[in-house]
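Closing statement on the nicotinamide-adenine-dinucleotide sub-project.
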Amino acid sequence: MSMTQPILVTGGAGYIGSHTCVALIEAGYAPLVLDNLCNSSVESLARVQRITGVRPGWIEGDIRDAALLEQVLAEHRPRAVIHFAGLKAVGESVQEPLAYYDNNVGGTTILLQAMQRAGLRNIIFSSSATVYGDPATVPIREDFPRSATNPYGRSKLIIEDILDDLQRADPAWRIARLRYFNPVGAHPSGLIGEDPRGIPNNLMPYITQVAVGRLPALQVFGGDWPTPDGTGVRDYIHVMDLAEGHVAALAYLLEAGAGMFTVNLGTGQGVSVLQMVQAFERTSGHQVPYRVVERRAGDIAACWADPARARRLLHWQARRDLDTICADAWRWQQANPRGYA
Ligand SMILES: NC(=O)c1ccc[n+]([C@@H]2O[C@H](COP(=O)([O-])OP(=O)(O)OC[C@H]3O[C@@H](n4cnc5c(N)ncnc54)[C@H](O)[C@@H]3O)[C@@H](O)[C@H]2O)c1
């Protein structure tokens, strides 16, 4: 592979994208980030440079800008695209469905058209465990039925189907659909991490913001779920494990030849909200006051991955444990109490 050919990383200034840039650089790839900064700060890429010594290529722009994409693909001739760019707030997607379909589905279509015109047919797409809806059983295998209960989830379903149609129409495409479980934690340097705008929707940043004194108490949505301690159970995966999963998927995509594959990126372990609170208190030495409130509409009791296919196909598995997740998330939060601001 020519090292001068970059990997185009859409949404690369964001949470998962910035960590994946670190993993790409460490594996010898050259990331070229395209991001409109609608939910991120370009400071994350300066931090990637501090960690790796390499500054990722940078283009400020929108994936819906077809002319820009045409120019970027012609000028930089990327080897593949890792496509993180998208909106991801479930509640907001219910309020503003059109923004979600425009950005996620419309944006992806424009990106795929530009790639097709440029003769670039290698793409890794950020899908989500949300496409499994409320699974009948756990652990969840990739062949389980898919469904959506909100526009965010439906946008992921639709994009998965578009990619399927595209690969059938033109078998030269190489497509990876990666279904993430719950990404958490931060790079061990404490230099990059999750920096949500407003009150966090997700458990881990909520916990760390309570511990750092930015929020008064954790709200636990439901204490009467059919789980061992009554709180929701999820598969929390360290964001650096997830990032390395992308590097493994890229290597497989580039060497395996044309085709499409779909894999879960998760740990295979279910962890409850209260177990996470306890692990965090243990590793950080800080108390996390919480109160149990009503269930949140659209939430499910339990969700965790069967990670066997990723292990078999990509020779990848998550290796960082819950204590490492908590310690790394806390290091990031303490060093950056206001995020990148
Ligand atoms: N974090 C999770 O829990 C999770 C779980 C499953 C899937 N995903 C998916 O992974 C991807 C990355 O998620 P993340 O957590 O890093 O989110 P993020 O918001 O931190 O990163 C997304 C990035 O995309 C950028 N972006 C959005 N729309 C764009 C556009 N039209 N043009 C250019 N850039 C645009 C944002 O500015 C941001 O930097 C998303 O597609 C998300 O849906 C995330």
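The chain has a mean pLDDT of 97. With this model delivered, the sub-project is considered complete and its resources will be redirected to Aim 3.
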